[in-house]
Inverse folding.
């Protein structure tokens, strides 16, 4: 039996569904512009005005009132909610839905541990600039005593303080603050260049409180115009820098993914080479002669050579994380910097910088307009040297792909190396047009050195937070998106076991995709660091064998196959998995050990462990 309030909500939801939007329903006179309801319905309507129609939820006692609103609105076809099993995995799925498909959703958890887990998972969105709404239950506002699952400390608003430290948050202590919350929320979630999670804290007792809603007063989705730097002189100065330097290296960060065409025009017009970050592969086609591949702490032979020898550095859309610039010492010969970035702190990160602050594409267009034609003859020596290093990197990769199975201590048999296995799966993904997601760890590190993307969006790697379990948790997004893409998660055994329940979520929500587990029964990335720094590995492996094929096949709807043995067996397993109409899993045991042929190597510096003293000393001696 429905309450009178639920019946009124249903009438409003039905009108919105009939006309397709709040605005159309109001225009046709079937939806009042102002009416009395609850804060919970106000939140749903406010997010709907911003285009948020999808919710991922784990309901609890801290979200029952909001859940009732969503039940009614879903039954009328206005919104849809997907129930999940783990808050961290759910946060990752929502991040992938926004990052891969451009569909901003809202994550819902109750108060307490669920909210803390979802907030932890939101680090991936925060680190990679991905907009997602998070809605958490919160303690009541009358101070009548502890609420179950609140932080057990006699201090007000602790969840709001924690979420504010992660990004931006709003505690709806007063229902009438709804409009202000929505305005601040869209400014964060739909920020054109540095989006991120926005946390809505809904106290248990304010959710059902009465609220006079003015639909026309609720803010629409932020639609900010593209802005370029206004000072003509700085573009003329930047053009002069380009003309006066023959050795130019462009470092492309994740912010450059949406500006691939403009970056390519700049590289070709200036005679620069481009070095990519793990999150920007595909900005230049892999075979483009001026694409030097990835560079940074892991990097590549060609990418790190270009970084180390370039004399003019052009930074585009990078926030200079350690993996992107070798902990600040990757550009040891750079004498000047042009930084093209939308964030003030990022655009001013280096010394000796001409800061082209604003939209990347708009700023590149203005720079190209004043650059004029460059005499490439004076840059031929630089381009030829970089081309030679790219050929060296290509030959090195081919030698790694030709390594035969190596004897593995943990499995007591010869196994494919990770480079061989990852290359085979990456090529298969390209063959079938699948999107690649890379989980954190050794799979991720080898993966971004191996992929040969020709445009952005072919690969996604959480190089910001490097969150174990992100890739496998991204697969269920394919069952939620309007226009799903077949995706393959490249995951280590450790990353997969962080969120194995996503197998259930993926089946429940109808996702079609594949998880490939590269099982080396250790944290190989950390073992490698320990061997490199101290000559021993320590507590980064175990002796417990797991039958991942049996484990995954225990979930109804999942097809799990054994891809172990050799390249032929793995190829056969991949084709069997792809033929399955649903979620498939392929298990691939891979070599881990001290034989350096088992990985792709590292080519930069990193401020970790016993390398810190040297890296920091070199950083303090740099001028940029």
């Amino acid at each position: 039996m429905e309450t009178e309030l639920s019946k009124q909500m249903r009438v409003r939801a039905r009108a919105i569904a009939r006309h397709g939007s709040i605005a159309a329903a109001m225009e046709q006179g079937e939806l009042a512009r102002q009416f009395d309801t609850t804060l919970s319905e106000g939140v749903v309507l406010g997010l709907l005005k911003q285009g948020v129609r999808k919710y991922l939820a784990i309901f609890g006692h801290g979200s029952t009132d909001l859940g009732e609103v969503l039940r009614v609105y879903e039954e009328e076809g206005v919104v849809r909610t997907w129930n999940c099993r783990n808050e961290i995995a759910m946060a990752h799925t929502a991040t992938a839905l926004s990052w891969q498909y451009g569909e901003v959703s809202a994550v819902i958890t109750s108060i307490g541990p669920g909210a803390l887990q979802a907030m932890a998972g939101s680090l991936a969105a925060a680190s990679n600039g991905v907009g997602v709404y998070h809605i958490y239950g919160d303690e009541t506002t009358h101070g009548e005593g502890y609420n179950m699952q609140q932080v057990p400390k006699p201090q007000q608003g602790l969840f709001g303080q924690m979420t504010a430290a992660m990004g931006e948050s709003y505690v709806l202590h007063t229902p009438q603050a709804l409009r202000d919350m929505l305005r601040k929320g869209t400014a964060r979630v739909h920020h054109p260049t540095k989006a991120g999670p926005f946390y809505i804290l809904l106290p248990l007792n304010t959710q059902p409180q009465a609220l006079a809603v003015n639909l026309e007063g609720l803010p629409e989705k932020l639609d900010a115009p593209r802005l370029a730097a206004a000072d003509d002189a700085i573009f003329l100065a930047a053009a002069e820098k380009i003309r006066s330097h023959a050795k130019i290296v462009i470092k492309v960060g994740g912010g450059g993914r949406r500006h691939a065409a403009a970056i390519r025009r700049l590289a070709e017009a200036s005679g620069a080479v481009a070095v990519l970050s793990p999150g920007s592969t595909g900005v230049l086609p892999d075979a483009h002669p001026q694409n030097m591949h990835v560079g940074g702490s892991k990097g590549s032979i060609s990418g790190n050579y270009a970084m180390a020898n370039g004399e003019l550095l052009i930074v585009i859309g990078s926030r200079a994380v350690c993996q992107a610039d070798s902990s600040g010492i990757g550009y040891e010969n750079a004498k000047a910097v042009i930084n093209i970035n939308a964030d003030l702190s990022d655009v001013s990160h280096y010394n000796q910088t001409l800061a082209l602050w604003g939209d990347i594409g708009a700023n590149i267009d203005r720079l190209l307009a004043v650059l004029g034609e460059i005499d490439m003859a004076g840059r031929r020596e630089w381009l030829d040297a970089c081309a030679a290093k790219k050929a060296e990197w290509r030959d090195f990769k081919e030698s790694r792909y030709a390594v035969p199975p190596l004897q593995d201590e943990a499995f007591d048999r010869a196994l494919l190396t990770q480079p061989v296995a990852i290359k085979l799966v990456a090529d298969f993904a390209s063959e079938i047009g699948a999107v690649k997601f890379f989980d954190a760890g050794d799979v991720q590190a080898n993966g971004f050195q191996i992929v040969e993307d020709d445009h952005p969006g072919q690969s996604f790697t959480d190089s910001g937070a490097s969150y174990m379990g992100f890739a496998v948790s991204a697969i269920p997004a394919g069952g939620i998106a309007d226009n799903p893409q077949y995706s393959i998660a490249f995951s280590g055994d450790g990353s997969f076991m962080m969120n194995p329940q996503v197998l259930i979520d993926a089946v429940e929500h109808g996702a079609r995709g594949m998880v490939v587990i590269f099982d080396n029964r250790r944290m190989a990335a950390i073992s490698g660091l320990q061997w490199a720094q101290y000559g021993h590995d320590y507590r980064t492996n175990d002796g417990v064998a797991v039958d991942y094929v049996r484990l995954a096949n225990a979930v109804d709807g999942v097809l799990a196959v054994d891809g172990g043995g050799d390249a032929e067996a793995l190829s056969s397993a991949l084709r069997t998995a792809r033929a399955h109409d649903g979620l498939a899993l392929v298990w691939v045991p891979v070599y881990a050990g001290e034989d350096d042929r088992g990985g792709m190597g590292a080519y930069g510096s990193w401020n970790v462990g016993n390398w810190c003293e040297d890296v920091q000393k070199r950083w303090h001696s740099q001028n940029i």
About this structure: The chain has three domains: 4-217, 232-390, 410-592. The chain has a mean pLDDT of 96.
